[in-house]
Amino acid sequence: MPFFVIVAPTTTGLGQTCLPAGGGPLTVFGTGFAAGGTVHVGALTPVAFAAGGSNTQVTVTAPAHTPAGCFDTQQVTVTTVGGTGTAGTTQVDYYNAPSLATATLTPATGPAGTETTISDATCLIGITDVTFTDSAATAFTGLPFTPIDATSIVTAVPAAAAAGAGAFTITTCGGTSGPATFTVT
Predict the structure, then answer these.
(1) Per residue in 65-119, pLDDT tens?
(2) What is the spatial distance between Cα 174 and Cα 36, in angstroms, rounded to a whole number?
(3) Do residues 75 and 140 share a domain?
(4) CB atoms < 10 A from the CB of 34, how many?
(5) Whole-number Å distance between alpha carbons of 106 and 171
(6) Which among 119, 115, 123, 107 has a CA at the least distance from the CA of 152?
(7) CA-to-CA distance for 52 and 47, rounded, in angstroms?
(8) Which pTM was predicted?
(9) For residue 65, is it within any domain?
(10) What is the rounded CA–CA span in Å between residue 59 and residue 45?
(11) Whole domain around residue 163: which residue ranges?
(12) How many domains does the chain have?
């Protein structure tokens, strides 16, 4: 009688290092994925993938997960009929979106080019972009910033910003914050 031996999959890496709390696309690299199976992200609901695709990578939609704090780390494994992959360390971080709802700016007014401290915010971890949109609706992205902690950063109003009410937004893997107002004089 012919028989097939299906070895346990291995996991060697991920295409993403972080995900927003709402989940999203997650690519897992390794071996032994052609038989189909499930991707497990921590203790969250496993996500099935079909047999026959690539033997070395699979992309699934990771389930939603809201961390208790600003972020947490989940172990990623793959299970097929050959077993569960245990080789390799594959972990993904889930992030809650940053919030500037309670933030204060010091100072909150000044000429273009003014350095300001944004404090009393939440989840300013893993910042990927700081943007200032001026009163003329010009968005200045990729502003330099210095993180202080998970609730505060120092940044500056762009030198070319138009006078009037403008706003900062902050983007992390978890999403983009609402605005924090700065008035350019």
Answers:
(1) 999 999 999 999 999 988 888 766 789 999 999 999 999 999 999 999 999 999 9
(2) 30
(3) no
(4) 16
(5) 20
(6) 119
(7) 16
(8) 0.85
(9) yes
(10) 16
(11) 104-184
(12) 2
